[in-house]
Design a protein that fits this description.
Helix content is 35%, strand content 27%. By secondary structure, it is α+β, with helices and mostly antiparallel strands.
Amino acid sequence: MRKFVLWVATLAAAFASSQASAATLADPFTIVFGNTCMLHFYSQDKLRHEMAANAEQLSPDKAAFFLGGGTGIAWVLPEDAGGYVVALRDDNFCAVYARHADVVAAHLGFKSLVASSPPSLEAKELDKSQAGPNTETLKSVPYSWSRPGDKTELVFILTTSSEPASVVQAMASVALSNKGP
């Protein structure tokens, strides 16, 4: 477990020095998302290897909730690393779930990660009505990264719940999707 905490701290430091803002650094949920799903979206075998070495794999029945009906694998991070769940489906959907999260910090951190993109890609906030629930207590925020001529885009979605008793207070995901019209 101590090895995993050091791994998260090392990744967080590398991530922080490269691109994270103060808002991101203040939010452990965003750091975990950035250092797992975002960092390894195009190197998912590396994510699988690192998670297998440093986190507990959930049994298929427990993982099913986090895989949303898809097939794949999910890991729970140790409590002293935040107790998050990282889920990686076979269709390349990757998500991080937090049972408890500072919802305001999660939104600020998420936006600091995805509102701007690496060179050659364009970042765009997408229509919230197509991203998931948006009620008084549930909020979903979608962004995409793509090049203008591409037929696909990386879609990032953050969904949070301000209900203290909710099973999941924050979920951030990334997936490759066909561009809409």
